[in-house]
Every structure is written in C-alpha cells, then in structure tokens.
Design a protein that fits this description.
Dipeptide-binding Protein, domain 3; 2 domains; four-stranded antiparallel β-sheet; 21 strands; D-Maltodextrin-Binding Protein, domain 2; alpha+beta; five-stranded mixed β-sheet
C-alpha cells in the first residue's frame, strides 16, 4: 500500500498479534458475549467516502466490513490465525486455473441484501466496474493493472459495455481473467471493491449516503461525510452464510472528528455510553501509556496489536555520497536502534527492526542482520567503511523528515539518528518539512532527497504488496507518486517477484518473499528502524476482544457489550 494510504488502513483496522496484557475475551465478571446494546466507536478520522468503490481497505476494513461483504475476507481470530484469507460471500477462496491467470468463484446459496433481494454474481461484477469510474476513485489500484483490458476502462457511467475480463455465466458464478499470474488474488478479493452493488440502487456519488448492505448492519445515518455514522441490524443478514462476523450489538454508533487525547480520556473514564466504546484509529501515546500501565484496571483494558508496517531510512543512490554502497553500509552500522525506539515512544510502542519485512510469518519474515550494529550502533565499523569510501575525516549529509508529531518520521526520530551518526563522524543536518510538503518531496523522482525517513504498510499480510512497490523496477513512476525510493531496477529481483506471484501455495510464497527480502537487504538501500506496536484502550463493558495479525486493532465485528 502506498505510504500515503497507510492512515486509511489504520483507521479501518491495522494488524495485530492478539492482546497480550488483557483478558482476550474482555473485562468484567461475566465474559460470555451476549447480543444487544449499542457499541460506540470513538475515532479521530471520519469514515469518509462510505462507498465500497472508494474505500481503500485491508481485509474489508473494520467499520466497512459490518456493511460490505466481499468474495473473501480475513479470518476473525487472534494472532497469526487472523492472517489467513477465508471465504465470505464465496464458497471458497477461489479456484485458480491457467497458471493462476484465471480465478473462479461460486457464491453461497441464500445471500440477500438488506431489502431481502438476492445477491448475484452480476452485482459483484457491477460493483467492481463502478469502482473504475473517475468520480468514484480512491480504492485499491490493483484491478486496473491485473484485469485483462482494464487499463483504460472508465466505469459503467460513460458506456454500457462492461469489463470482458469478468464473466458471470450464471447468478452464482464469477470468473476473473488476469494479465499475468497472481497467486495472491484471494487476498485482493477481500478489498471492498468486491462488494456486490445492485445496479438498480446505484446512485453514483450519493451512494455513500445509503449503500445497500450485504453485511450484518445497514446504514441509517451518515452525517458530514462519515463524521457520524449510525448502523443498525440488517434483519435479512443470516449468520448461516457468514461464519466470520458475530454481530452482537444491536446498534453501532461511530463518532469521529475527535481529538486523540479526548478519545483516550473518554475511554479511560468509561462513563455512560463510553463504557461500551472502542476506537479503531487512536493509539495511546507514551505519556498516556505510562499512566495506564500504573493503573491495574486501565491496564486490563488495553489491546495490543502489530500491523504489517516498517519505519525505515531511505537512500536515493542517484545522489552523492549515497551512490557509494559503503557510505550506505556505514550509516547502517552507525544506527542506534535503542535511541530510535525510545524516540518512537519506547519498547512498548516500537520494536527494533533489522529486516524490511515485518516480523510475522505470513510476510515470510526471515531473520537477518546484515550490518549488525548492536543495541547502540557500531560507530567504529562505520568509520572504517567511511574511510574505505574515501571519507577518512567523516562527511556532512542532510536528513529530510516530517514535522508531524507522529513518532515515525518526525523530529524525535530524526534527532536520534543525528546523535547516533555523530559518533561515527557523520554530521547530519536536519531538514524538517510540513507533512504535505514532505510527502510530495519524497515521492517525486525529480525531488527525492538523498536521505530521508519513510514508512510502508501492507495491503494484506504477505511479502508481495510489501516488497514489490518498493523494489520492483517496473513500478518506478517518473511522472507521479513513486515509492521505489532506491530506484532499484534489478532484473533478477523483478524476475523473482514474477516467479513468486505465480505461486498459489501462499506458505511457499512466503518463504520466497523472505529470501528475497534478505537478497535486497544486501544492497543497503534502506535501513530498517522499527515496527510500531499499537496500544488501544477500550471501555469497561466491551467484551470478546479479538485482535489479529492482519488488522492490529480490536475487530468490532466480534465485539459484544453489556
């Protein structure tokens, strides 16, 4: 996923290893989940563009997944089990043929919308087609690249002809024809673009005000473009066709546009309706976490999660002195990850990283540390490499970062790096930019600096959407948003990406992604710094806490309230 889109996934639900410092099934005496009540969601970011065509989600999202069902979805389980893709509207995760260039799905029997009308394969085809309409842009871009003949398609509003690459031979069968082998198509089929949309109910850009539900809840209120969203039970949803969503509460009340400190204060106090409240986008900060840790009751109401996400230093080898691999290696050795982790909020909120891939099996994580710096860096080894690179007296460089207080690419992290590199004889000048200026600068090939802070999050828990956008040379964008920061265009790397994409055995693919990560790491085009840890409070009446390694946050499709 594009780094610029990471916040969208986090708002929808980032990824996690199950809660470690709380009762996994909820606080309180009776932990048995019951139906009924109202769940309140307190968020900072509004649930904007509540249209399945426009949402950029992972695994179907968190709030969106309550209304929009897709061909496949994420497994709603704690920890590593939650990284698996499972059937949703379909009977299985897809049947590949012709070398994974054709994928066929069969819909379950008895699927209906909120008005009781049947869901058909033609509705899924139409839902995908409308996501190509320029006025409904914003969703994941893969379908335009993967589907045969889809590159220039403009959606159903500008012409009656649909996508020939999607066939619907009958009401329960849908077939996708791809340009090239894509073994991870079942992951893509979790995106909301695979939500069925009845053509007769499509109101274009106004569809977000009342999208037709295929999930356990329907929209009864959408104010200020998702700032206040109220969901009530869809009485035509049947649990017999949906093994993933529990749908315990009667009502979901989403309130957004709140300050993060206010959200945490309200969850901490748990007064009134806030006792049955959660957040899907607001973490505890270092100061808040210190307070919570010292309170036994609050500590029991913290969910811990890990999203597939890496914060790192990026090099542009087209700019001196970063064209010299030994300079890049020297910086790698000089990094003090302990100080960087402290700057990111401490070990409770960040874990040191020496691999680009996140530390999760589903990504194919293969442990390696090619430039071992220890906990505090190895300035002596860095000096030796600088001397070999022709800089016996050190050098002066500029590090570009964001001024946003995000504990990721912000001044605190940059200063920690500056201090560490100084010990190796490297003087670092800091260039702080406002967030939009920073994003524009680092994602433009023409303006990309030589050294800057960056981060990347995965569209699904696999090495594919993590490594390919950053290291596939064919994805270098010269006249638009570019994420291949090292401008790597290595034929052997590109060929291995293609070879892995052909694999439909995702376990075997994961091993290959891990090996490729190490191979790329040898080029020292990035310095992995840390993987974030998410700590989020929930109200005292919230039960059945499930946090998966796919989303990293409490899954509200599983939550029950008193």
């Amino acid at each position: 996923m594009a780094a610029a889109s990471v916040s969208l996934v986090l708002a929808a639900g980032a990824a996690a290893c199950g809660p470690k410092d709380n009762d996994a099934k909820g606080a309180g005496g009776d932990s048995t989940p019951h139906k009924g009540g109202t769940l309140t969601v307190l968020n900072a970011d509004p649930q904007q563009d509540f249209d399945p065509a426009r949402l950029y989600t992972s695994g179907g999202g968190n709030v969106p997944s309550l209304v929009f069902r897709t061909l496949t979805t994420r497994n709603r389980e704690d920890g590593a089990a939650g990284t698996e893709v499972v059937p949703d509207l379909a009977t299985d995760t897809g049947r590949p043929s012709k070398g994974a260039t054709v994928w066929t799905y069969t819909l379950k029997k008895g699927l209906t919308y909120e008005d009781g009308t049947p869901i058909t394969s033609a509705d899924i085809k139409y839902g995908i087609e409308r996501s190509f309409a320029p006025e409904l842009s914003g969703g994941a871009p893969y379908l335009r690249d993967w589907l045969v003949g889809a590159a220039d398609y403009q959606g159903p509003y500008k012409g009656k002809k649909g996508l020939d690459a999607i066939e619907t031979p009958d009401d329960r069968t849908i077939v996708f024809h791809l340009n090239k082998p894509e073994g991870e198509f079942p992951y893509l089929a979790t995106q909301t673009q695979f939500t069925p949309v009845p053509k007769s109910k499509d109101t274009g850009t106004k569809y977000e005000e009342h999208p037709v539900s295929s999930g356990p809840y329907k929209v009864v209120r959408n104010e200020n473009d998702g700032e206040r969203l109220t969901l009530e039970r869809n009485t035509h949803w049947s649990a017999s066709t949906d093994a993933e969503r529990k749908a315990y509460p009667d009502t979901i009340d989403v309130r957004s546009g709140l300050d993060s400190s206010v959200i945490n204060q309200r969850l901490s106090a748990s007064q009134g309706a806030d006792a049955a409240a959660v957040t899907t986008d607001t973490n505890l900060g270092p100061a808040e976490l210190a307070k919570v840790t010292g309170d036994k009751d609050l500590a029991s109401r913290v969910g811990t999660g890990h999203f597939g996400y890496t914060n790192y230093i990026a090099f542009n080898p087209a700019i001196k002195p970063f064209d010299n691999v030994k300079v890049r290696q020297a910086i790698s050795y000089a990094i003090d990850r302990s100080s960087v982790v402290n700057a990111a909020g401490g070990s409770a909120l960040a874990e040191p990283a020496t691999t680009f891939l996140p530390d999760q099996k589903s990504f194919g994580h293969t442990p390696y540390d090619l430039f071992p710096a220890g906990k505090g860096g190895d300035p002596q080894k860095a000096k030796e490499l600088l001397k070999e690179a022709g800089h016996p007296n050190g050098l002066t460089i500029t590090l570009t970062h964001s001024n946003a207080k995000d504990f990721e690419t912000s001044p605190e992290i940059a200063t920690a790096i500056q201090d560490a590199l100084k010990k190796a004889g490297i003087t670092v000048k800091l260039q702080g930019l406002e967030d939009n200026d920073y994003s524009d600068k680092i994602h433009n090939v023409k303006t990309e600096p030589g050294l800057f802070l960056a981060h990347w999050g995965a569209d699904w828990p696999s090495g594919g959407p993590f490594l390919a956008p950053i290291f596939d040379g064919r994805q270098i964008v010269k006249d638009g948003a570019n994420f291949n920061t090292g401008l790597l265009n290595d034929k052997s790397v590109n060929a291995e990406i293609d070879a892995i994409n052909k694999l439909t055995d995702l376990d075997q693919a994961a091993k290959r992604w891990g090996a490729l990560d190490k191979k790329i790491g040898e080029k020292a085009l990035t310095v992995p710094l840390f993987h974030p840890v998410y700590k989020r409070l929930y109200g005292e009446d919230v039960k059945n806490i499930v946090i998966s390694d796919w989303t990293g946050v409490l899954d509200i499709s599983q939550v029950a309230v008193k």
